[in-house]
Amino acid sequence: MVVGEDVERLVRKHHLVHLAILLIIILGIGVYLIATTVLIAKDGVAYIEYAKQLAVEPAKAMRGTYLHPGYSFLIYIVNKLVGQFYGGTSLGSWIISAQSVSLLCKTIATVVLYLIGSLLVGPRMSFWAVLILTILPDSAEYGSDALTDWPHIMFLVTGFWLLLLSVKSSKWQAFGFVGIIAGLGYLVRPECCQLVIYGGGWLLLRLVRPQREMSRTRTVGCLISLLAGFAITAGPYMKFMGYVFPEHRIGSFARFVDMADSNIDKIGMTSEYFAGFVPIELAKGIWKFSSNIHESLIYYFVPALLIGIYYHFQKQARREEKFFVPAFILFNVVVLLWLYCKGGYISRRHTLPLVALTIFYVPIGLQLISEWFARLFFRTDAETYWEKSKSQLCFLALIVIGMAICVHKLLEPMRTEKKGYRTAAKWLKENTTEKALIAVPDRRIGFYAERPMIVFDDRIPKGAKYIVKIVKDQDKSSTPYQSLHEEQSIYINERDKKDVLIIYKVM
Question: Domain coordinates of the chain in residue numbers?
Answer without folding.
Answer: 1-147, 152-257, 276-411, 416-505
